[in-house]
Each structure stands twice: as C-alpha cells, then as structure tokens.
TrEMBL record:
The gene is recG. The keyword Nucleotide-binding applies. Residues 271-433 form the Helicase ATP-binding domain. PANTHER family: ATP-DEPENDENT DNA HELICASE HOMOLOG RECG, CHLOROPLASTIC. The keyword Membrane does not apply. It comes from the Bacteria. This is Probable DNA 3'-5' helicase RecG. It comes from Qipengyuania atrilutea. GO terms for biological process: DNA repair. Pfam families: DEAD (PF00270), Helicase_C (PF00271), RecG_dom3_C (PF19833), RecG_wedge (PF17191).
Length: 687
C-alpha cells in the first residue's frame, strides 16, 4: 500500500482550485492527472524578457514585453491563422498571430482600440513583425510581466503558461517533505538540495543541481525496481528447456541461416538449458531475420514439451507473425494459435482450452495473451517483438507472471546504446544479428519535392504496371493532439490516389474499424491491393517482399530512426527497391542534412546515433510511440552521466539493507511509490 505521506501528491488535479472538467481535459492530454504529475511537469526552459517601449527597439527573435493597441482583426481564411494588427505608442504596426482554437480567445482578449500588454517573441514574416501566440495578454502591466525569468512549460490546447504556472504553484504548496533516500555522503558531495527544495528550485530558474537531484531520484527508483525484479526472478527458478532438435530438423526453410542467426540461436539454446530464467535481447536491424530466430527458440521449448508465447505490439503484426510462423513451421506439426483482444466467443474459448490442456504449443498475440483469464499449462518462454513499443513496467510485470519465471527473449530493430539497455532492463544479455541475409540489394533512396506530385504519381503507376506493389506513407504530424488532421490527410490522399488507381489502392490507419483495417491489410499482403496508403501504423514489422517502392510524404517530419524503420518495409525481396522521400519546399538546414543522411546510408546504427544526437534520444527510448515513458525527469544526458552511480547505489542499498527495512530502506520504498515502480515493493513482500 502506498505510504500515507504520498497521498496529497496522488490527489487528482481537479482537487486544485480552478480545475474543472474543462481544464481537466488539456491537463490529461499532457499526462497530468495527479498533483504528482503537475509538480514533475518541469519547465522546458526559461525565458528572459526585455521590456521595450516600441517595436523599433525589438530585435527579431527576441523575447519582449510591450504595450500594443489592436487596430484590426483579420479573420482566418481557410486553414490560415487568425491575425490581429496592433500598433505601438509610436504607430509601428505588427501582427499578433493565432492558430486553431486560440483565435477564439484572441477575439475576446484583444478588443480593437484598447491597450494591452503583450509578452512574446518577435519574429519577422515577410516585411512585417509578428508575435505568434503571445505568452501573455494583460490589461495592466502586471507583476508577472516584470519578472525577468519565467518558466516555459509544455502546453496542450486549452492551456496557457500562466495557467500552468499557477497550478504548479498550488501543487507545490501542497507537496509534503519526504524522508531522504539518497545516501547522505553523496548528497553532500554533489551539493544537492533535499527533494522538496529541489522541486521548488527546478520550477524557479535554471538550476542544475536541483534538476540533477530529481533525475537521480528517478534513476535510483528505476535501478531499485529492476534489481528487485531481477532478484525475484532468480529466486523463482525457471524451467530448464533442452531441445533434441527433432522439430527444428523438420523445418524446411527456403534459405540457409546466416552466421549471425545461427550464433544467436546457439546463445539462446544455451540460456534455455539453464534453470535460471533467460533475459536476452535480440538486436537486429530491420530485415535481419529475427522471426526465424524466435521460431527456433520456440521450437526448442516445444521439443522440451513446454509452451511459448509471442507478444506483438499491434494487431496487424500479431496476425502477420501468426501467418508467417504457421507457414514456416507447417512441416513440424506444432500447434500455433492466435489470440488478440478482438477474439471473442467460441473461438476464444477453444484457444483458452488449448492453452490450458497444453495442446497449443505456441501462442501469438497482442497483450491480451497475458490477461488473467488466460491460463497456460506450462508457459516457459516469452518472446516480445519490437520491445521498444512496450512500457518497462509492463514488460517486467509480464516476466514475473506465473509461479515459474519464464525465459524471456526481447527483440528489437532499434539499436540501443548500452547505458540505455541498462536503464531499461538492468543487466541483460544481448545477441546481435549484425549480418543481413545474402542477396539484399541496397535500397535506392531519393528525395523529391512534393511539388512534383503528378510526376510522382505517374512514377507509381509505372511501378505498379510491372506487377510490383508500393507503400504510400502519410505523416503523423503530432502524437494525439492533431491525429484527426493526420487521418484526414491520409484519407484525402487515399481519395486522390483512388481516382487514379481505383480498386488497386487500400487504406490503413489507426482509426479504421479493426475488421476494415485487417481486411485492407490482408488484401495488400495477398497482392489484391497494389498500393497501400497508410499512416505510420505500418512502421513495424510488416513483411511483403513484392512491395518494392516506398513513398513517404513530408519525410522531413519523421525522425531518422522512424524513416529507417519505414524504409525497411521495402528491399525484402530479390527485386531492386526504391524509397522516395517527399519533402516540403521550406526545409531547415538540419532537415536537409537528415534527408541527405538517409540517402547516404542504410546503416541503422549510424542513423540511430545521428538521431540520438539530433533529437535527444526520446525516439530511441521508444517513449514517443509507447506513451509509457521509461523516464520523465531524467534527460538522455543525465541518464548517461548519473545512471551508473544510481544503479550502484541501488545495489548497495538492497544488499546492505536486504528487505529495504532500515530508515533509508523505508525512504526508498516511498521513492518507489513516488515513481510508481512499486511492483518492486510488491515482489519484495511476496518473496
Ligand atoms: P526482421 O528482423 O525485420 O523481423 P524478418 O524476420 O521479418 O526480419 O525477415 C525479413 C525477411 O528476410 C523475411 O522475408 C525472411 O523470410 C527473410 N529471411 C530471414 N532470414 C533469412 C536468411 N538467412 N536468408 C534469406 N532470407 C532470410
Ligand atoms: Mg520483425
């Protein structure tokens, strides 16, 4: 049970003054559901502003405060922004610019002819100065405007900076002092403030010590949880699985294994023979052939009379794996079943029966396969595909389901640097597929302007005429906020392509009814549909060797790792493949460099490294897609710098203080609950 002292922090945000159903929504969208989340919603940066008396004093790009009088509202035309012309004291005119729903409030806040104090960043657009989405619009030059240094928070639509700052202030006022979990010597050496002070300071201004302390807390919590899970895993022995090769010998693969595949299978076989549960990561670039390695592992389990489960991140992938495995494993006679959240009624019942009586050897599915209602006769191996899509907690919980700890094989196409694997799993063995199957041709990657749409469509037409298939990917502009717009863009593109290609085009995106999505996907896999228009749902794992052209719209909006994943959908057969990156006309320098790099290399590790450098690693950690952040507080730089120490400390604390009992041990429990790594504590109790 959560220590009482944390209760105020776990109160819902609507217990804050001024938060009703209307404000709760945008807060939820930011993941701020409890006070704890609000106090940990640390500023992205701080702005320092200069008060100026007229626009002549403003430098382009500068943060300023000045008095302006609105003179005219220019309503938005179509999808354009709402613009308000405003005058300073000397008669200079600038524009205040609002996109989307912000334009409604702009109309109210900026009546024509009435002076307002505006704070924001001055930009130049054409030959006019403008301020896009001012941070403040006030009737009086209020105290907050005079503040030199002001936090800037991540927002969602419906929130403003002052609103969030006010909520943070309230939440901090209700934040209790907590017992110290950091070792006193370290605290002193680093000059770190105590927990509560660190939070307050981190909201006030740049304060490296405060931020480091908060990051360290998170890393320590993570380290403690991982070690508790690991210790628990070791305590509960697994099942030693010794295959005799009888099923693997019957496999009739159309290719010979690569050296890397054979080596990885050997490593896994060695692990499975042990009683202590395997925890191994199989890393291999897209197309490296991870599936057949997974199948071999599962056949070893079947040879030893045990069951395996393979977890896929999406319904589409689960189905595809099911088909692929069934095809590959047909000569072995093993019984493979599929279970997803969508399976209901009699089919589901019979699968559940088969799992219970042991007649099903291998189960493939989405997270539904680990629901409580799913009971296995003797589950001994869990394979997790594209692991970076799953939250850390989920992975760990799942590995600890059942009396015997199952062996775990996690597979990923994302090259993860060692520190980050350590952060996500603790110590873990790694097998690498560092060799692509032979005969793969380089994918011819080109960059073209969206302006040449007609030519591009004709190029696609010629491609389809040869009997080969193609993907057309529309971008996901932002995570959830604008998802509907993205879907609309994909729908619109689908409509125009359909005019040209008729029934040969199919569409998949996340908001189609599941049956429709499946049916469309299957039509493409079968080859009935020639051109698949999709959002990034096809990013992972889909395997259609006859698809040899990939068109990616607005490629500059994607991360490198993501582009690499997408591109990996082609180049899977013997035919030469082409990847066409469509770009907008106004590209930043970095965007240009990134697209050039895509053209230059097909090395996933190199691209991931560059991505890490350019984007700070969020994508690499998989936080962007999974929505389950391994780390919210610690930055990549802090992880690299502080994680080894935090993990050492966690180990010491657990070893010296066995069950987390002493004074610091009790404090560490509070920490685990604070960061919701309390499954660690629960295991402790169980053991
Ligand atoms: P990924 O590592 O991306 O999951 P897959 O397992 O989907 O890759 O394999 C990609 C393609 O390569 C599949 O069509 C698979 O049949 C094929 N493949 C796998 N191993 C080999 C091999 N040793 N030789 C030739 N083709 C192979
Ligand atoms: Mg795969």
């Amino acid at each position: 049970m959560r220590p009482d002292i944390l209760n105020p922090l776990f109160a819902e945000t609507d217990t804050l003054d001024g938060v009703g159903p209307k404000l709760k929504k945008p807060l939820d969208r930011l993941g701020l559901t409890r006070l704890r989340d609000v106090v940990y919603h640390l500023p992205e940066r701080f702005v320092t502003r200069r008060a100026i008396s007229n626009l002549d004093e403003a430098e382009v790009g500068e943060q300023v405060v000045l008095a302006l009088t609105p003179t005219q509202h220019l309503g938005s035309t179509g999808r354009g922004p709402h613009r308000v012309l405003a005058e300073d004291a000397t008669g200079n005119v600038c524009a205040l610019v609002f996109f989307g729903r912000a334009s409604y409030s702009a109309k109210k806040q900026l009546p024509v002819g009435e002076l307002r104090w505006i704070a924001g960043r001055v930009d130049r657009y054409g030959d006019m100065l403008q301020i896009v989405h001012p941070d403040h619009i006030l009737e009086r030059s209020d105290a907050s405007l005079g503040r030199l240094c002001e936090p800037v928070y991540a927002l969602s639509e419906g929130l403003t900076q002052p609103r969030v700052a006010g909520l943070v202030e309230q939440a901090l006022a209700r934040t209790p002092q907590l017992p110290e979990w950091i070792e006193p010597g370290l605290l002193e050496k680093e000059g770190w403030p105590d927990w509560r002070d660190a939070l307050v300071l981190a909201h006030k201004g740049e304060n490296e010590r405060a931020r480091d302390r908060l990051a360290y807390d998170e890393l320590l919590a993570n380290g403690l949880a991982l070690m508790l899970v690991r210790a628990d895993n070791r305590r509960r022995n697994g099942l030693s699985l010794q295959g005799d090769g009888r099923l693997r010998d019957k496999l009739d693969l159309p290719f010979a294994l690569t050296g890397a595949q054979a080596r990885s299978i050997g490593e896994i076989e060695g692990d499975l023979a042990q009683e202590s549960p395997m925890l191994r990561l199989l890393q291999g670039d897209v197309g490296a052939g991870k599936t057949v390695v997974a199948l071999s592992a599962m056949l070893i389990a079947a040879e030893a009379g045990a069951q395996s489960a393979m977890l896929a991140p999406t319904e589409i992938l689960a189905r595809q794996h099911y088909e692929t495995l069934r095809r590959m494993a047909a000569p072995t006679g093993v019984n493979i079943a599929l279970l997803t959240g969508r399976d209901k009624g009699r089919a589901r019942e019979s699968t559940l029966m088969g799992l219970m009586d042991g007649s099903i050897d291998i189960l493939v599915g989405t997270h539904a396969i680990f629901q409580d209602s799913v009971a296995y006769k003797n589950l001994a191996l869990v394979v997790i595909d594209e692991q970076h899509r799953f939250g850390v907690a989920q992975r760990l919980m799942l590995a600890s389901k059942g009396k015997r700890a199952p062996h775990t094989l996690a597979m990923t196409a994302t090259p993860i640097p060692r520190t980050l694997t350590l952060a996500q799993y603790g110590e873990l063995d790694v097998s690498k597929l560092d060799e692509l199957p032979p005969g793969r041709q380089a994918i011819d990657t080109r960059v073209a302007s969206t302006g040449r749409m007609e030519e591009i469509v004709e190029g696609v037409a010629r491609h389809l005429q040869t009997g080969q298939q193609a993907y057309w990917v529309c971008p996901m502009v932002r995570e959830s906020d604008y998802a509907t717009e993205d879907i609309a863009a994909a729908e619109a593109r689908f409509a125009t392509l359909k005019e040209r290609f008729g029934e040969a085009v199919a569409l998949v995106h996340g908001q189609l009814a599941p049956e429709v999505k499946d049916a469309n996907m299957q039509a493409f896999v079968r080859g009935d549909a020639k051109l698949l228009v999709a959002t990034t749902v096809i990013e992972v794992g889909v395997d259609v060797p006859n698809a040899t052209l990939m068109v990616i719209e607005q490629a500059e909006r994607f991360g490198l790792a993501q582009l690499h994943q997408l591109r990996g959908r082609v180049g899977r057969g013997a035919e030469k493949s082409v990847c066409l990156l469509l770009r907008g006309d106004e590209l930043s320098e970095t965007a240009r460099d990134r697209l050039a790099l895509m053209r230059e290399t097909q090395d996933g590790f190199r691209l991931a490294e560059e991505d890490l450098r350019l984007r700070g690693g969020g994508e690499l950690l998989g936080t962007r897609q999974s929505g389950d952040n391994a780390f919210n507080v610690a930055s990549l730089e802090q992880i690299t710098r502080l994680l080894p120490k935090a993990h050492d400390d966690a180990r010491l604390l657990i070893e010296r203080d066995g069950g987390l009992t002493g004074e610091r041990g009790e404090a560490a429990r509070v920490l685990l609950y604070l960061f919701e790594r309390d499954y660690g504590v629960q295991l402790l109790r169980g053991g």
